[in-house]
Amino acid sequence: PHRSSMYPFLTESNRRDLREQLYTAYVQRGDNDNETDNKEVAARIAKLRAERAQLMGYESHAHFVLEERMLKTPAEVYDLLMQLWKPALERAKVEVADMQAVVDAEGGDFEIAAWDWWQYSEKVRVAKYDLDEAALKPYLSLDNVLNGVFATTNKLWGLTFTEIFDINLYHPDARVWEVKDKDGSHLGIFIGDYFTRSNKRGGAWMSSFRGQSNLDGSQRPIVVNVCNFPAPVGDDPALLSFGNVTTLFHEFGHAMHGILTNVTYGSMAGTSGPRDFTEFPAQILEHWASEPEILKSFATHYQTGEVIPDELIDKLLKASKFNQGFANTEYLAASLLDMDWHTITAEEELKDADAFEEASLTKIGLIGEIAPRYRSTYFSHIFAGGYASGYYSYVHSAVLDSDGFAAFKATGDVFNPELAAKLRMHVYEKGSTEEAMELYKQFRGREAEIDALLKVRGLDGSSD
Questions:
Q1: Do 175 and 248 share a structural domain?
Q2: Is 429 a residue of the active site?
Q3: C-alpha angle 182/183/184, rounded to 5°?
């Protein structure tokens, strides 16, 4: 089963036995002692990586990989993850108690198990926040949201976007804009391809048709954002969920990283750079999407023109911290498991994958109601996808973006001109021409601190 099809069933089905059956099948993938069993494969990959690292003079595979990242050693990664682990786990235990209270109130004679989480967390969410996602969508037409993200970057950096209609693109759904700087000079071309279609792979991403370079004259970039939003129905415009809005702002942040870059060598332009930094320019832009000031500037009802009500914004912001114990705990457990696999040494015996994983998760006190987001036998990110010793990167970028946006909030002006100029100069323009940590410090004035992320995710006690 895939998560996209499993989660709706786990949320909606009242057959607890079938929820258990489906969930168990999911978490046991590659761990059934048959011809597709991955336990020995995973252990062998980790062992071979450790041996290769030793041949190259490194203590472990993690030491080898991290040498070129923002966090340079396994100790730094473990320190980051464990700073989040304790508050996330404590929040998850509170969430279990909240769900158990619902079970008891309904007369259920069982204790919450992992396969119950989706159904009962949804019941808690509805009771606590009363947020109807369908009520949001009429305010979030695609054109409204595009106007919002264009206006955001205009207020930050003076950028303007002029749609071009006389260019034939690769598909009728794709749209194109010329991007100009505040002085009217050409910065690049931005293409938006937003709707799902049968021959498009899933997900959302930014790509470049042409990168930026100053090596042989000025070559400005052509970048594209590709998403899979629902297409318009009938005469109505395309209406987005708030999750879609966040995705649009995120990918647009990557696009701005590609368009604002101003370096000599194309190989160092835009989104090149260490994995634990390149998500920062995308993730920080997400914060503006949920600022009430910004939302009210673009979120107007597509039929009536009514500005999104304050009550709806308030519910949206409160609900954003819901279930963060679960979300962070499952992610952090997988990140710590990744690091444990890749800090073994070449001298160690080949591991029994199940025993190794159990020891890793027991060591950190993972509760039985939550499994790591990926177990070892289907953790393709680290065993097949290039994230070995790097799955932590998502949360490291989150530390950066939360801390970075907190700097704007602290000034009382989320468009503070001085900070906006520093963000552009030291982050969006520099590509990978300098050490990523130095770029962040030039923008922020110091290294990132974790407090802002804890607050954003409700792990500082603010959502109790």
A1: yes
A2: no
A3: 90
